[in-house]
Structure formats: C-alpha cells, structure tokens
Amino acid sequence: TGPSAAKQPWSMLRVMPTSVSKCRRTFRKLLISVFASFFLHANIVCADTRTFNYEVRWQFVTVGTIELNLRRSPEKNSISLSAKTKGPFKFLRAKEADVISTIYRTGERTYEFKSVDPKVNEERFIRYRDGETPVVVSFRELDTEKPLATSVERDGSSVDPFYVLARFLDRTESGQECDGKYQVYDGKRRYKVTAVSEFIRTPDSTQVSRSEKVCRVVLDGSSVESAVKREIGSSFGHLRSMFSVWLFVRKNQVLEIKFETDDRSNAYPSSFRLKTPVGSIVAKLQAREEV
Q1: Contacts of residue 128, Cβ cutoff 8 Å, sequence gap at least 6
Q2: Contact at 8 Å (CB) between 117 and 133?
Q3: Whether residue 241 has pLDDT greater than 50
Q4: For residue 242, what pLDDT is reported?
Q5: Least confident of 19-23, 130-134, 147-151, 165-169
Q6: 10 Å Cβ neighbour count for 140?
Q7: Strand stretches in the chain, DSSP E
C-alpha cells in the first residue's frame, strides 16, 4: 500500500525491455550453437568408409595382399590402396606400396604413391585440374631421375590411374556401362586406356540378387611414353610389376575388373584379373567392412 506500491508495476515494466533483449541474445546464441552442432554432426554422419581385402594369386600361389578403402565425405571422395608381397614372391622382392587418389569438390584431384623398397623408398605426389598441366609436387623413384615432362596440350585431360576406377564405380552405381577412353599420367609414364563392358547381370525381380558387371580395360601399348631408364622385360620382372597395376611393355595389356553392388546399391570391385605373358594374376575379395 502507499505511493511506493503504486509505482512498483511501472518500475517492472521499465526493466522488462532489457530483460527481453538479453533473453533474445541468449536464444540466438543457443540457436547458432545447435545449428553448428547439427551441421558438424551431419558431416560426420555423411562421411563413410568401406574397406575391402583381397588375396592376390599367381599360378595357384598366393603372392600378395591388397587392402582397398573407398571413402566419401561432403568435401571429397578418395580411393586408397595398400599392397604387400607375400609368400615365395616376398623372397624375390619384399615390397609395400600405398596409393591414394582423391577428388575434391573444388575440382582439384590429387594422386599420391609411396612404396617401401629395400633399395630406396619411392614416392610421387601430383595435383590435377581439368584443362591444366598436372603439377608434380614430389618425385623420387629408384629407376627414374625426374618425372616425365608435361604440357597443357598433352596433359590437359590427363588423369591418375585410380581416377579410372573411381569413374567405373560411379557408372556402376548409376546403372551405366563403363565404356570410355582415358589418358593417364602418373609422373613416370603417359598412356591411353580404353574400357568396355564385357558382361552385365541386373538383379532379378523374382528374387533377391545383386547386379554384376565386368569391365575390360585395355592399355594401348603403343601409346606408352616413359621416363623410366629401363623397362622390365624378364618373366620375374613382370611379376615384380604386379603392384604397379599395369605391365608397361610395348604390347596391349588387359585388366578385367568385376563389379558388384551391395544391398544399398553401393558398387565395389569383387575381383581383378591381370593377364600377363606368364599367366594371369588374380586378386579376389576375401572380406569387406563398412564404417
């Protein structure tokens, strides 16, 4: 009661705008924090990795292993491969090789190759962009002093070896054939490859099955340009080349890749078959894992 009691409601009203303003600022900060957390979580959720392990055999003998990782995220897609010699072949030449091919949303592509060799550790790192000359950032090779020279005219459309595999995976998932022509530049060599779909089996509507496709990839031996001092020519030399993906001799080389799709229509290679003068080298899928 009294004059002071009558003035109290008005004093509360004068304070309210300040309180409301503080409340709004707090709410905005909370909202920003929630959205930031949501998008960060979304990036983590959208990123996935699929791992595939293969056993490599030559003439019924296990000579190596391959681990293939397919990674996808909002910023980039990458293919990484780790290969190791095994069994009797390890006594001929113990070697480990790692390759990473990455496609960024910005349009840039990178290719990284590293190998552990008893004589010297080899490495290559190259950047690519359509219509531009590939940039060789680092280059160290046992049999090659410097990388093969490049130019926009010659290499404006060149890709790395595993970019071709990435294209096959995309085409398989979209229901397209793998037919196409590519020019590859890997620092040591430049060559042309042609891909043709050999066999396709689509899922049967009457039963649960997965689609299969065989891509036959032919390297044009006459197109090979090399910075290597001496190309491998012996039978053992051919075997030692198995983890270089291609056998770089002046004859056409054939690689057959069998693709399958899983229950979510994601494509993956289930086997590789490389035909050589000393018999086929086959890598068959042994296990796969998704994260």
Answers
A1: 108, 109, 110, 111, 134, 135, 158, 159, 160, 163
A2: no
A3: no
A4: 39
A5: 19-23
A6: 14
A7: 48-58, 61-72, 76-85, 96-104, 109-116, 122-128, 135-140, 180-185, 189-201, 212-219, 225-226, 253-261, 267-276, 279-290
What is the rounded CA–CA span in Å between residue 196 and residue 274? 15
Is residue 52 scored above 90 in pLDDT?
yes
C-alpha–C-alpha distance, residues 35 and 12, integer Å? 34
Residue 111 has pLDDT above 70, yes or no: yes
87 backbone φψ class: left, alpha, beta (φ>0; ψ -120 to 50) = left
Question: Which residue, among 114, 117, 142, 138, has the nearest Cα to 126 in the 3D structure?
Answer: 138
Torsion of CA 159, 163, 168, 172, to 10 degrees: -130
The widest CA-to-CA distance across the chain, in whole angstroms, is 111
Q: How far apart are CA 166 and CA 228, in angstroms?
A: 27
Phi, psi (rounded to 5 degrees) for 247: -100, 110
Residue 167: partners with Cβ closer than 8 Å, 6 or more residues away: 178, 180, 182
φ, ψ at 255 (rounded to 5°): -125, 125
Residue 42: per-residue pLDDT: 42
Q: What angle do CA 260, 239, 65 make, to 5 degrees?
A: 45
Could you give the CA distance from residue 159 to residue 230 in angstroms, rounded to a whole number? Answer: 24
Convert the pLDDT of each residue in 20-45 to its tens digit: 555 555 555 555 554 444 444 444 44
User: Do 51 and 68 form a contact (C-beta atoms < 8 A)?
Assistant: yes
Lowest mean pLDDT among 119-128, 151-160, 248-257: 248-257
